[in-house]
Design a protein that fits this description.
The two termini are about 30 Å apart. It is globular, with a radius of gyration of 24 Å. The model has no long low-confidence stretch (mean pLDDT about 95). About 30% of the residues lie in helices and about 20% in strands. By secondary structure, it is α+β, with helices and mostly antiparallel strands. The strands form four sheets. Strands 7, 8, 13, 14, 16 and 17 form a six-stranded antiparallel beta sheet that branches. A six-stranded antiparallel beta sheet has the order 9-10-11-12-18-15, with no helix packed on it. Strands 3-4-5-6 form a four-stranded antiparallel beta sheet, with no helix packed on it. It has 17 helices and 18 strands. Helix 3 (about 55-65) runs parallel beside helix 5 (about 100-115) and helix 9 (about 150-160) packs parallel to helix 11.
């Protein structure tokens, strides 16, 4: 999309429509399906096409709520909503099952009913309204995953309640209680039993809590107050995940949703809450969207691709369909504000003064802010096993960087294909093994310590010590056999090898540069990885590596 300056409501609306307009030719005849690719997710293609219909509503509903108008999209969504919920239609979305992807996508329809009722609900006939509500009731007949999905159940029933349709009051209360059980204090949630700090806290748990608080404050003032207070507390921590250039920390799953990373602050702006001053939040949003518009994330027709900073199926999860990236439209929630809101006239401000080294207790990580603008996270890791695609690379590396991103494994058969940046890897039996599930970890202001095993027969304790110039790693390795270990720094863009340096402090390691396979890194398609190669002997070994960046 190239350079784009944002300030006024018109600027934001124009950008949103620039992103969404290329979709218009791809809606089905009855408008209930949107198919823009030929790759697959684990759920049925029909569900992916319904997902394509639904996800643009996160932006369009806010745009309509704030007074925006686009006749073509309004017609598409009224027609599609009717044909998708009509059992007699060839485009009927169908009954749902337990843990059905369509339950996820109902939430955007609920959001549209809640905030843009006059565009998407009021024009329907009474028969059509009943038809839509009967289909939405499917979320009460089937199970949602015990994670942020329970908020989909809450939002759909809230929408049904608000338009005077039958809703599941008891089930809704059960889901609200489940969400309460996920709260861990300081503004932070866990995303269900296997949840931890990642973007599902800001763009899911917090986002939906804010939405609920906006529409249910009269009925449930106390719960809604808690949701907003938590968002205010969370926003003071979450700012540490953003760099001054607008980029945010590449960490965790669902990174193909890209600029959804800043959706939380857009929701705060929509709800008129200020974890940070309004001009600061505007600055975060403006720079974030401008950053992403400079990246090659669209194809030659203007459709958003799967990937991170460039098209890349390598880094995906099994739930990423060609339509999935449009989850990013949540970041246009601020468009729900009318033209005369102070947000549109205030000046975008820089990030506030932030600590150079910040311990985020509830996120289990230390954040470093470098002079060159690089933001680095040193997380504890994970204590549970493989859940989604590339779980190990997305959560269990020693360091994550806004400037250098991280790399994902193509295969474990050699270092080039494994691309094990920012981690200690072991070469055993012709394969590369990395840190995945940790036996345990501890994060304090001073260090990150974890106990882990890359494979049976090797046990490691790693201590990461942040320093002004980068960090130091101390590894105690107990091995049942001789092998090779590689302690790696960040993957650097090819031709710019000066950004990160690794040095051996103890253990007789040999510094070297390794060129991994292309398209393994999320930000740079061609990279080199600085590493120190250690010979590990049977027994107990202690090695120390300094990582400078």
């Amino acid at each position: 999309m190239g350079e784009r300056k944002l300030n006024t409501r018109q600027d934001f609306a124009d950008l949103m429509l620039t992103v969404l307009n290329p979709l218009k030719p791809y809606y089905s005849t009855g408008k209930a399906r949107l198919n823009i690719g030929c790759t697959s997710a684990h759920y049925p293609d029909e569900s992916a096409w319904m997902e394509g219909f639904s996800r643009p509503l996160w932006g369009l509903a806010a745009f309509w709520a704030g007074g925006g108008s686009d006749d073509a999209f309004e017609k598409i969504y009224r027609e599609g909503l009717v044909s998708g919920t009509d059992p007699a239609s060839s485009e009927y979305w169908g009954k749902c099952g337990d843990y059905d992807q369509k339950l996820v996508e109902m939430a955007a329809i609920a959001f549209a009913i809640l905030f843009a009722r006059e565009k998407i609900w009021e024009p329907l006939t009474e028969k059509e309204k009943k038809q839509v509500s009967v289909w939405l009731w499917e979320i009460n007949r089937n199970k949602c995953c015990d994670c942020n999905w329970r908020f989909f159940h809450i939002l759909v029933n809230t929408a049904l309640k608000k338009v005077g349709m039958p809703y599941d009051k008891k089930g809704m209360e059960d889901s609200l209680e489940f969400i309460e059980s996920c709260y861990i204090g300081g503004g932070w949630y866990l995303d269900g039993e296997n949840g931890q700090a990642d973007y599902y806290v800001p763009f899911a748990m917090e986002f939906y809590g804010i939405v609920y608080a906006m529409v249910m404050k009269e009925e449930e003032p106390e719960r809604c107050r808690r949701y907003l207070e938590r968002a205010e507390a969370f926003g003071k921590d979450f700012v540490y995940w953003f760099a001054e250039d607008g980029s945010a920390l590449p960490y965790g799953r669902s990174l193909t949703y890209r600029f959804a990373q800043a959706a939380f602050y857009s929701a705060c702006i929509m709800a008129h809450i200020e974890p940070l001053p309004l001009p600061v939040m505007k600055g975060i949003l403006v720079r974030h969207l401008e950053y992403w518009m400079k990246q090659p994330i669209f194809d030659h027709t203007g459709l958003m691709t799967i990937g991170y900073c460039y098209p890349n199926l390598q880094m995906t999860e099994s739930y990423n369909s060609p339509q999935s990236p449009y989850w990013a439209m949540k970041t246009f929630a601020c468009l729900a504000l009318p033209e005369d809101d102070p947000f549109w006239t205030c000046e975008a401000a820089p990030l506030p003064e932030l600590e150079e080294e910040k311990y985020l207790e509830k996120a289990d990580m230390i954040i470093q802010r470098r002079e060159d603008g690089n933001v680095v996270a040193l997380p504890g890791g994970r204590t549970f096993g493989h859940v989604h695609g590339h779980t190990e690379e997305k959560y269990a590396k020693f360091a994550y960087s806004t400037k250098y991103g991280f790399s994902v494994m193509r295969s474990p058969v050699n270092f080039q294909e494994a691309a094990p940046d920012s981690v200690l890897s072991f070469e055993v039996l012709g394969h590369i093994f990395i840190r995945g599930q940790a036996k345990n970890y501890e994060v304090t202001k001073e260090h990150v310590v974890s106990v882990w095993s890359p494979l049976p027969g090797i046990r490691v304790q790693s201590e990461i010590l942040p320093a002004r110039e980068g960090h130091k790693r101390i590894h105690v390795i107990e091995s049942d056999y001789d092998c090779i270990a590689y302690d790696a720094g960040f993957a650097l863009p090819l031709g710019e090898e000066e950004g990160c340096e690794v040095r051996c402090l103890l253990g007789g390691g040999e510094p070297m540069m390794v060129k991994p396979d292309p398209n393994t890194n999320l930000i740079h398609s061609k990279t080199v990885i600085p590493v120190v190669r250690y010979e590990i002997k049977k027994g107990i070994n202690k090695i120390e590596t300094e990582v400078l960046y």
